[in-house]
Structure formats: C-alpha cells, structure tokens
Amino acid sequence: MEYIKKLWRFITPYKRYGYLNIFFNILYALFGTLAMVSLMPMINVLFGKAEKVYQKPIYEGVSGLKSYIENSLNYFITNTSQQYGEQTTLLYLIGLIISMFLLKNIFNYLALYYITFLRNGVLRDLRDAIYNKVLELPISYYSEKKKGDIIARISGDVNEVKNSMLAILELIVKEPLTILFAIIVMFSLSVKLTIFVFLFIPVSGLIISIIGKSLKKNSAKVQNEQGVFLSTLEETLGGLKVIKGFNAEKSFSDKFESSTKRFFNFSNTLLNRQNLASPTSEFLGIVTIAILLWYGGSMVLIDKTLTGGAFISYMALAYQILTPAKAISKASYKVKAGNAAADRVLEILHTDSPLKDKPDAIVKSNFEKEISIKNISFKYEDEYVLKNFTINIPKGKTVALVGQSGSGKSTIANLVTRFYDVTEGEIYIDGENIKNITKHSLRNLMGLVTQDSILFNDTIKNNLLLGEPNASDEELINALKVANAWEFVKDLPKGIHTNIGDAGGKLSGGQKQRLSIARAVLKNPPIMILDEATSALDTESEKYVQDALENMMKNRTSIVIAHRLSTIQNADTIIVMKNGRIIEQGKHQELIARNGTYKNLVEMQTIE
C-alpha cells in the first residue's frame, strides 16, 4: 500500500473517478445486503410465518428503527394479503427482491465504469512518465541497464500496477463494506449467532495470510526474469546478422530458453500460490456455514429463539460474506504483485539524472567566438580515457581529431554535446561553461553525424525533419543534394516519402550515412560534430560526400573525428591523440614534416 503514496501524483488527476467508484461501491454493498434481507419476508409469506400487524406503525426514533421497519413490512404484508390475497403479496415481494438485485448490479457496473478511467489514466500517465524519463536519463545509464528490462517495466510492470489499483479499492472499499453491512444486519437478526461466527474468522485470516507471505518476493522474480528474456530478444533482433553469420543460433536459443524456463518455474510457483487462495477461503467458508447450520438450526428447532425466515436470511448473509472474503484474499495477492511491480517502476522514475539543467541555466541561441576545452579529464568507470586535454576551437575553424581506436576521440564529441559531464576541467562556449547552458539550447547549436547511422523506421522525410521540423520539401531536397543523397532518393518508389525500414535496413551503409549527413545539413547549426562520418562509405561515395562536407563546413565551426586521414587534410588544426592525451598538433603539412606519429598513420593508410 506504501507505493500508492509514491504514485499519488499520477492518481490525483483522476481522483474524482475514484470518489465516484467509492460512492457507487457503497450503494452496491448496501443494496447487496438489502437484497439478501428482502428474502426473509418472502419466505415468511411462503410458509405462513409472517407476523400479523393490523395497525400502521409509528416512527419513534433511531432506537426503534429496526422494529419500525419490521412492523411496517409486516403491516404491508398483512394489509395486502387481506385485500388481494397471499399470491399477490408474494408477487410484490418477488418484485422487491428483483429491484434490489437490479439496483445492486447497476451500482456495481457504475463503480467499475468510473474506476476504468482512473486505472487507464494512471496507466497512460505512468507510461508517459517512464518514457520521458528514458529520454531524460543520460546515455551512461543505459550502459548499465538492459533495454529489454526497461521495456518490461514500461509494459508488464506498469500493467501490473494498473491491475492492483482496482484490487486496492476492492480491498479497502467494496468488499469490506459488503462484509460490514452484512455483519450489521446479522447482529440485528441474532447477536448470539454472529458472535459464534466471529470465533472462526481469525482462524481463516491467519491461514490465508500464511499463504500470501512470499508472494511479493515471487512476483519480483517473475518480473525480473521477464526483463531478462525481453533483453535477450531485443539483442537478438538487433544482432541477427552477426548471430547467423557466426552460426550462433544455438547459443542464443539456449540462453533464451534458459530464461523462459526460469520464468516458467517462477510463474508456476506464484500462480499456484495465488490459485490456492480461492479454494482455501471457500473451504473455510463452507466449514463455517456447516457449523452455522448446526448451531443456528438448534436455535430454530429447539430453542425457538429464531424464526425459519430469519435463519435462512441469516445464512444467505453469511454466505454473501464468503464472496467478498475470497475477493479480499485475491486482491491482497494482486496488491503484493503490484507492490513488486511498482518498486521496479519507481526505481526508474526516482533515478536522478546527473545531467540536469541548473535552475538558473541560460538559453544560448547563437555562437559567436570559440569553443574552449580546458584541461579536461574523463573516465567512464575506473580508468581515465582523457587526461589533461586542452584545445581552443575559434569560430569558423575546423579541428580534426585523429589517433588509434580507444585514444579518446569520440569521448570529446560526447563531452562537447554534454552526453556526459567531464570528470575534471571545464568546457566553455563563448566563455560560458556548458554546465550553465540548458542542454536543449546547447545541442541546438550543434549538428551531429555519428559513426553509426542511426535512422528510424519511418520515411526519409520524417527522419530528416528531426533536424528541422518546420523545413519545407525544397529545403529538405537541397540538404539531400549537399549530402550527395538526392541521386538515390529521387529514384526510390516514393522519393522522400519512402519508408526506409527498421534502422534504415532497406538502404546500404553508404546511403544511410548520407541521410545522416543530410539530417545535420538541414538543421544548419553553427557547430558541426562529425564522428567518423565517412567511415561507412565506399571510396566513390566518400569522395562526393567529402566534397559536400567541405562545402558545408565553410564558415562553420567543426570538430571532425576521423579514421580516414585523407578526409581531414584541409583541417585548420589536426590533433593527434594517444591514450587520452595530445601528442601532436598542427596542420597536415606541418605534421608530415615532423616525421612523427601522424606521418606514420598516414603512411600506414597509404599502404592499405
């Protein structure tokens, strides 16, 4: 129940539906009890045991309410029987019973009708909140978490929380009120018999609580394992070419089946314990009814302290308690499962992003002077990948970063765009620390083309519009031409409206990369960051795209991370990196003349 407080902000917008549900559940419980009580006068008429009352009773206050209601009903039966006969009286009483049951079920429907809006509203808002949190959290968060586990939380776990919402309202309103109203009437019929019944209720409750103790733990195991096999599925779909190419189908199949086997075992344990609740509570209820039959029957047949009609109505009320009691035991298990699911959902929602904007962060709308990277060091975990790195990039200049894999080149791009924060040192744009600038406005100044062409299962047009949502088709086509992509896009069946498939799977590697470049061109930012942007292109495409990139980078500040050194010979400054440090820097010809690491790298690529 504690997690309801934590999720209260999601419930608040829909609380009116909760209040309406509670209101109609109160009416449901009341008329459910009245429906059972209305059986008593009918039985008395059937067996000729109705008390004759010839004078209309007078209301004498709350203390005499029970006698007033009984006498009024008996007066109506007596009067109607004298005027129209007992068969007509019986017909009226049957109509009364039908009306009570009809109203009970109408109110039950209305209660469920309104709770639907609360449950589905909370479900929608929870999913929206988790999705937005997924977008907000830094990239470093996902290097530790499995994507499939995140998917399991936003789908299965949130759904479990939704189901437990109804269970909680049943647990605290609907079923307890049904039991309460029934017990009040049972006390009014026979205090002695009701006290006798209550001797057995603690025993039943103890047995049911013992069954449910480990449900939260088992439910958490099921939900965690669901995250594991969804992660395996997500990895399989993402790496299908590699799996097939290395004949690793058996290995991945075994891994997936191992997870589903654990899921099978955990689910069986959980569901079997849940399934035990209903038969256990029903059996305990029937034992109580059997004892009631013996004890109450003696009150009717021997002591004569209870009428037959009252006893049958009492038995109906006692049996009516069984249904909500079973529902409460089931609901308590749903709440425990929902509690485990809520813990997993709240873990994401309560995760703080270390890259949050400061409360007084400024919005920077233009770039005027320079990017200044001052003495920065950075580590992903324990080992530093950058050490005391310092460079200045004046506006309009192109700086190229080269070096072996793992030398820290791409890390620079991640830090300038603030996908990560520096461990030590500072990065400034126009003299302003990027930590003091909103992430949105910072990234708005930059165009990013990554080594991996990240495209989405949508049309070419919609993929490019990520860069500039309001761009016209003409601007979009111009961007494609600059990136040398229009030559193949115009020949596609639907042109820019062609769907490119999952991750752009319908296109070649070079075509995907050129679309990524076109997306950055369309954004038209003052700063370009090219992280090995030409690495996926064939030789011919590389030449065309390189020309396009050079045209695009004129009068624009660029950070180019390059593997192919032939693409950065015209850079204003080339920085050679090794083990996170700068070992050489200068123009292409200067570095060649030094006869150092850069020249060795150029010669190795020339030989290749």
TrEMBL record:
InterPro entries per the UniProt record, alphabetical: AAA+_ATPase, ABC1_TM_dom, ABC1_TM_sf, ABC_transporter-like_ATP-bd, ABC_transporter-like_CS, P-loop_NTPase, Type_1_exporter
| Coiled coil segments of this chain | none
Stated EC number for the protein is: 3.6.3.-
Q: Does the keyword ATP-binding apply?
A: yes
For molecular function, the Gene Ontology terms on record are: ABC-type oligopeptide transporter activity; ATP binding; ATP hydrolysis activity
Q: An example Gene Ontology cellular component term from the record?
A: plasma membrane
- Domain named ABC transmembrane type-1 is located at 22-337
Identify the keywords attached in UniProt to this record, alphabetized.
ATP-binding, Hydrolase, Membrane, Nucleotide-binding, Transmembrane, Transmembrane helix
Q: What class of enzyme is it?
A: hydrolase
Q: Where in the cell is it found?
A: Cell membrane
**How is this protein situated with respect to the membrane?**
Multi-pass membrane protein
Segments forming domain ABC transporter: 371-604
Q: Carries keyword Ion transport? A: no
Q: Name one Pfam family in it.
A: ABC_membrane
Q: Which Gene3D superfamilies match?
A: ABC transporter type 1, transmembrane domain, P-loop containing nucleotide triphosphate hydrolases
Q: Where are the transmembrane segments?
A: 22-47, 90-115, 179-211, 283-302
Q: What is this protein called?
A: Subfamily B ATP-binding cassette protein MsbA
What species is given as this protein's source? Mesonia hippocampi
